Amino acid sequence: MSGKGKIKAVFSDLDGTLLNENHKISEYTLNVLKRLKEETDVCFVVATGRPYADVFPTLTDCGLEPDYIITSNGARIHDRNRKMIVKHDIEPSLVKQIIDRANELSVASEEESVELSKNENLCDPRIPKLINGRKFTLNMYQEADWVVDMGIPEVAAAYHPKFQYKDIGSKFYSLSEADLQNVHELYFLGDNSNLHPLKAQLDAQFSQQVTTTFSIPFIVDCVLASVNKGRAITDVCERLGLNVSEVAAFGDGMNDEKMLATAGYSFTMANANPDLVAAVPKATGIASNEEDGVAKQLEKLFF
Length: 303
Prior knowledge:
This is Haloacid dehalogenase-like hydrolase/Sucrose-6F-phosphate phosphohydrolase, putative. It comes from Angomonas deanei. Pfam families: Hydrolase_3 (PF08282). By secondary structure, this protein is an alpha/beta fold. The protein has 2 domains: 9-87 and 227-302, Rossmann fold, CATH 3.40.50; 92-224, Hypothetical Protein, Haloacid Dehalogenase-like Hydrolase, Chain: A, domain 2, CATH 3.30.1240. It has helices at residues 14-18, 27-39, 52-62, 92-106, 110-116, 153-156, 192-206, 229-240, 257-262, 274-279, 293-302, and strands at 9-12, 43-47, 68-71, 76-79, 84-87, 136-142, 145-148, 166-167, 183-190, 210-216, 219-224, 247-251, 265-268, 284-285. The strands form 2 sheets. The chain has an 8-stranded mixed β-sheet, with helices on both faces. A 6-stranded mixed β-sheet has the order 8-7-6-9-11-10, with helices on one face. Strand 3 and strand 4 (76-79) form a beta hairpin. The protein is globular. It starts with 8 loop residues before the first strand and ends with a helix.
């Protein structure tokens, strides 16, 4: 299939899609993206669950200059000059309610602690089933800051060195509404088996106000119910004067579902979450992120 003349913009997720397992863009992929910019009029947009304070230095290091940058699953959108053009924050009172509920659910009982401390069938070796007596950690992106109740260095290593967490320990649970301004995303990190019950509880209590999604197996993202990558690409298309039928989107995680469902041309990575593949049957499967799947598909579409 050729995309020449049909596809006017390309939207791509980062982790598990454009980036390899070392959270880098390969030279092969970078060269194809440079050709896309130099040899076509196609707009290129990054769409990720990561916060902009982490994404900006990562893009700079890679020498990548997207036309738009969608971060925190659509809670923030910046233009090519990194000027913020879309901002969606969670109300401080709602942030407080979610933190209070998650704090209650994170504490393991004595019986649970015995079982969880065995660390059997971990979804990721970096993430134990019991973290200082808790089943998962609480995190929030508050404008350019990453604030946590418990930091895990092995996880922080996946972020840019210039973007590291602020571990405030148990103070996290007593933050007042005045302390919770400009929060655009909450997320919870833990073993997949501990996160599913948490997600179910949050969905039952807050589904009208926020949306929770598994961006990767050990992280549940939480943003405003009106925020998702599908809405974000629609916002960008309106600015570009395009119809969503004229764009292609690439993704691998459940937070990519609405983006892939919205785009006219959708592609799932070979390493994609099986639930995503099932949720967006119209999407075409392509090679994995380790095999430069996005770059190879762009070559087929445009060169």
